Amino acid sequence: MDDSYFCGGSLISDVVVLTAGHCVKGFSSFEVHLGALNFYDETEVGRIIVNTNVSTLHENYNGLVINNDIALLHLPDPVSGPNIEAVRLPSWTMANQTFANETGRVSGWGKPSDNATSISPDLKFADVLIISNEECQAWYGELVLNSNKICIGTNGGTENICSGDSGGPLVIYEDDGLPTEIGINSFVTSFGCESRFPGGLTRVTRYLGWLEVNAGITLRP
């Protein structure tokens, strides 16, 4: 973002990237890397870099309590390639699922530890336990933790999202073995990524109508 900051994102169609609202708020230009594994190796086979200055921030985004932390980047031309594929979004029948006690997978190039001074060069993955909103509210309170959010356990502080992971996906694997994005990496506590505090994410199922309208996609029934 503006040649200064880094966020993650997910391709949800061949022209739209889903990310966090705070990754768009206040920024005007975005360099999108697609098909990357080692972020710093721009010679990777299959890597595509696209620039855009067109974004859509949720109209009710609130940075103070990190609410409606969702946004889109609109690419100038369709993208495709052997290492590039849009992730599936939840179906309308999943709108009321909590996903509590299911296993999800988060990913990103964020800091690998609180002591790290920069993002990870390599894309990292962690399989995490999705916890209930009631359990997460016990850590963050109701002002911050509402129904628009979903939380992940940290396995005692050993697995979590961190700075630089914002905007990246939390996916579950449905019965067909394919991933579905149900969360957008949003926030961690000021005590650090390695604290026992849960990771906080935007709950994608709360925004299905918004996504259909603003991303121009049709979701599964």
TrEMBL record:
InterPro entries: CLIP_Serine_Protease, Peptidase_S1_PA, Peptidase_S1_PA_chymotrypsin, Peptidase_S1A, Trypsin_dom, TRYPSIN_HIS, TRYPSIN_SER. It comes from the Eukaryota. Pfam families: Trypsin. One of its GO terms (molecular function) is serine-type endopeptidase activity. Keywords: Disulfide bond, Hydrolase, Protease, Serine protease. Residues 1-216 form the Peptidase S1 domain. SUPFAM superfamilies: Trypsin-like serine proteases. Coiled coil: none annotated. GO terms for biological process: proteolysis. This is Peptidase S1 domain-containing protein.
